[in-house]
Amino acid sequence: MPYLHISMVLLLSLHIPAANSATTDTISSGQALSISDTLVSKNGRYALGFFKVGNNSSQNTMNWYLGIWFNSVPKFTQAWVANRDDPFKSPTSSLELKISHDGNLVVLNQPTNSVIWSTQAKMTRNNTIAMLLDSGNFILRNVSNSSHTLWQSFDYPTDTFLPEMKIGWDNITGLNRRLVSRKNSISPATGVYCEELDPSGVNQVVLAKWNSNTQYWSSGVWTGRFASQPDEARNGGNESLVANAHEKYYTYTIPNETVPLYYNLDVSGQIKVFAWPEGSQDWILAYSQPRAQCDVYAVCGPFTICNDDVLPYCTCTKGFSVRSPEDWELDDRTGGCMRNTPLDCITKGSSTRSTDKFLSLPCVSLAQNVRRIEDARSIGVCAQVCQDNCSCTAYSFSNNGTCSTWHGELLNIRQIQCSSAANSNGGTLYIRLAAKDIQGSEKNKRVFIIAIATSTSVTALGLFAFAMLIMICRNKRKSSGHISNTAQDCNGIIAFRYNDLKLGTKIFSEKLGEGGFGSVFKGFLNNSTAIAVKELRHHAHQGEKQFRAEVSSIGLIQHINLVKLIGFCCEGARRLLVYEYMPNGSLAKHLFQSQATVLKWSTRYQIALGVARGLAYLHEKCRDCIIHCDIKPENILLSDSYVPKIADFGMAKFLGRDFSRVITSMRGTIGYLAPEWISGVAITPKVDVYAYGMVLLEIVSGKRNSRVSCSCGSNHDVYYPVHVAREIIGGDVRSLLDSRLCGEMNLKEAEIACKVACWCIQDDEFDRPTMGEVVQILEGLLEVNIPPMPRLLQTIAGSSNYSTCC
Ligand SMILES: *[C@@H]1O[C@H](CO)[C@@H](O)[C@H](O)[C@H]1NC(C)=O
Ligand SMILES: *[C@@H]1O[C@H](CO)[C@@H](O)[C@H](O)[C@H]1NC(C)=O
Ligand SMILES: *[C@@H]1O[C@H](CO)[C@@H](O)[C@H](O)[C@H]1NC(C)=O
Ligand SMILES: *[C@@H]1O[C@H](CO)[C@@H](O)[C@H](O)[C@H]1NC(C)=O
Ligand SMILES: *[C@@H]1O[C@H](CO)[C@@H](O)[C@H](O)[C@H]1NC(C)=O
Ligand SMILES: *[C@@H]1O[C@H](CO)[C@@H](O)[C@H](O)[C@H]1NC(C)=O
Ligand SMILES: *[C@@H]1O[C@H](CO)[C@@H](O)[C@H](O)[C@H]1NC(C)=O
Ligand SMILES: *[C@@H]1O[C@H](CO)[C@@H](O)[C@H](O)[C@H]1NC(C)=O
Ligand SMILES: *[C@@H]1O[C@H](CO)[C@@H](O)[C@H](O)[C@H]1NC(C)=O
Ligand SMILES: *[C@@H]1O[C@H](CO)[C@@H](O)[C@H](O)[C@H]1NC(C)=O
């Protein structure tokens, strides 16, 4: 696992309750496990039994499985499934697991006593017993010889790799054990990705598209450890690759007292390792590989664009629609997209007639399976070559004058930053579409604009316009403007009526963004002041009185670097918050989106300082210390003069118990999570300091930490924060900066920023500065030393053998 950084998880320990004395871990001959019974391993970690998957609309569509799950965590999580591709259909709930006359374990469908599943082990005598071991291995063994195992579940892994399991082959039994991802987020059936030992014989673990030769990730060669693996992981991970005359496998062990670990090959084709620290409410992602989702081969299927920086990461290219919306919903996007309109292209003899057109997709990394057209020396000729061949679906013409064409389905198109398009294998792709789809998209846009323009005019026709009109008129009678306030709480926080917000946001039509807590829409107050309205998604635990109390306490918190809360709405189950509107959007937009204007160095430094001041205020100056818990560029908004303002503070007050669940389940935030989140110790303001350090690095580099890598003399990627830590020694901060700055910066400030960032992301929270200290350092009032290397980060990153920054 390839560097499962158990070091992090080792810090923790968990008291596992002893198995209930009423439960058992064995089935002997003559006993049967019915549909409602479970076996529980002696240590209480795993349970085995029948479970069902499906929907309630019809009992006949209910699928039953025999499987093993984690017994010590409250969330049902499958660790093994016996019959992933052959679910039992049993509306009458009459399944039974027992040892048959021949000694094998079988599942019987009771009324008919028919065998619907069997271990099918070869044996001469029937004196066997089945047992769920502490490791989660379900074995069938000889009663009179406990070391004689006839069958074991570890020989037939599904998508979960438990400690002590083996991935690899055994030449005596002929087994080749590998993980295969599940079909989708509901069905455990065989999916499309697998993790296995490299079939070519190289001593490494690879991820590949199942049943094809397409490997998209490898661990690096095993030489006592995996090539790219850091020393730290080796000590903690305790993994091994064993090769001898009759078997070759990869395995790992963890100490008994470690918290539950869940190593899973996800539907998305990524290895994900989760931990469940004590007191946690969900699995917490500790590690994933490959790090970028879009590195997974064909994860979005044909005719899609994959983008690591947005969610959902898969979108159809224009002119295409999702092929199977049901699968798409369930996280299986490998079916990709299909054309809205068939192409119009006919070849007769040597001449081709086609009305198809090409749509440009700028800033993409180009698909594989390219065909070079040597004699097309201009983009026009290149386009014509593609147009004249009915199987040609796209072309591209590179800066160096090379024409490339693609035929058939387009896979693995990936959105990248324009600035890097030139030097990587990126560029502009021209994709073939039916003429109607190209014109169609333009015409639709125009229609949409007209509709909005006319619907606000009095002469508008049509149902929508009519309805709007009635609503506007009705409301005019009540008030004169867009949104009127009905009450003024103390603290100057306004209580809005839901209908007024609905109208002021044009029925929530202009979405500004979407976060873990809810969606944000743009609207206007009656004096035409722009506002941002956040509709809270998780509010199940909060009554109106408490909500109002929290609103007024949050309303008290005002600072130039915090987004101002203007008002709220609380009607029935609806909870909305109204904030001042930030015309320049989020810092994320300015740093990561290719079309955004590049922020100057001085602006960046002021943003870094402003955010630090805002956080210092939250941590130290407010009456109750507020920990933000979700600092990331998306939550830093910019005013019209680029003053940074922190959004979403105080969410814990509104969401109560739901808050940590939202935080930990939010994807993309993971790169900003301090180690304490995973180790389960109490959370302090230092988690914000950690996240701030990560954001500061992104402000400096202009790229997501997770996306930036470099090959610094070695042939594998180095996680950017680790790279920064190293360069600070060399004193060459210049190489760390966003290339779009073109060298225009203040070297001293850049050095300070990098050092502060490196201090902020230290493993031990006590090594990190407070936000107040960060402000003083950035203001030049405090000196800062050269920071040590954040070791944990280095471990996760899988970098090589540097040990300190200095
Ligand atoms: C639920 O059952 C209905 C009716 O059998 C079926 O059409 C639908 O696909 C099922 N949904 C899921 C998610 O399995
Ligand atoms: C299915 O029905 C059970 C009990 O009838 C209920 O607890 C469960 O929430 C239902 N599941 C769905 C997805 O509706
Ligand atoms: C084992 O096999 C023998 C002979 O085939 C049979 O008589 C006996 O009942 C079997 N025992 C069990 C427990 O099924
Ligand atoms: C179990 O072991 C005994 C003694 O080693 C042997 O005689 C018997 O055949 C074995 N049973 C099976 C099912 O292999
Ligand atoms: C028990 O089983 C093991 C493994 O199959 C075998 O090596 C050993 O000889 C058996 N012991 C006896 C007493 O049959
Ligand atoms: C790793 O495993 C070996 C044997 O499998 C054991 O001797 C060693 O103590 C283990 N190390 C750790 C850190 O668990
Ligand atoms: C074991 O089997 C694998 C794959 O089937 C093969 O590549 C390898 O050479 C075999 N090893 C031995 C020692 O026979
Ligand atoms: C874990 O505990 C089992 C018994 O409960 C023991 O046999 C085993 O050696 C222990 N493993 C480690 C790594 O401590
Ligand atoms: C179209 O391109 C394909 C792939 O290069 C080629 O096999 C085919 O012959 C071409 N068809 C025509 C009509 O040129
Ligand atoms: C031109 O650029 C493409 C990628 O953009 C590259 O694959 C190709 O080798 C280059 N050709 C020459 C002649 O440099």
Describe this entry's structure for a reader.
Residues 506-782 form the Protein kinase domain. The chain is α+β, with helices and mostly antiparallel strands and 806 residues long. Strands 25-24-34-30-35-32-33-31 form an eight-stranded mixed sheet. The protein has a seven-stranded mixed sheet with strand order 36-37-41-42-40-39-38. Residues 1-21, 230-236, 441-490, 708-717 and 797-806 have low confidence and may be disordered. The longest helix has 21 residues, at 435-455. The chain is built from 19 helices and 44 strands. Strand 24 and strand 25 (314-316) form a beta hairpin. It has four domains: 6-291, Agglutinin, subunit A; 292-433, no CATH class; 490-580, Phosphorylase Kinase, domain 1 (2-Layer Sandwich), CATH 3.30.200.20; 587-797, Transferase(Phosphotransferase) domain 1 (Transferase(Phosphotransferase), domain 1, Orthogonal Bundle), CATH 1.10.510.10. The structure holds 2-acetamido-2-deoxy-beta-D-glucopyranose (NAG) (10 copies). The site of one 2-acetamido-2-deoxy-beta-D-glucopyranose (NAG) has 4 residues, from loops.
Per-chain topology:
Blueprint lengths: L5 H5 L15 E3 L3 E3 L3 E3 L5 E8 L9 E8 L7 E4 L13 E5 L5 E5 L4 E5 L9 E5 L5 E5 L2 E8 L14 E4 L4 E3 L1 E4 L7 E8 L7 E5 L5 E4 L12 H7 L1 E5 L3 E6 L8 E5 L5 E5 L8 E6 L14 E3 L7 E3 L3 E3 L2 H5 L7 E3 L5 E4 L2 E4 L2 E9 L5 E3 L5 H9 L4 E6 L5 E5 L5 E3 L2 H4 L4 E8 L1 H21 L7 H16 L6 E4 L5 E3 L1 H7 L6 E4 L3 E7 L5 E7 L7 H12 L9 E7 L2 E7 L6 H6 L8 H21 L14 E3 L5 E3 L4 H5 L2 H8 L9 H5 L6 H16 L18 H11 L16 H14 L10 H8 L12 H7 L9
Parallel strand pairs: 24-34, 37-41
Antiparallel strand pairs: 1-10, 2-7, 3-4, 4-5, 5-6, 7-8, 8-9, 10-11, 11-12, 13-14, 13-20, 15-16, 16-17, 17-18, 19-20, 21-22, 22-23, 24-25, 26-27, 28-29, 30-34, 30-35, 31-33, 32-33, 32-35, 36-37, 38-39, 39-40, 40-42, 41-42, 43-44
Helix pairs in contact: 11-15, 11-18, 15-17, 16-17
This protein binds 2-acetamido-2-deoxy-beta-D-glucopyranose (10 copies).
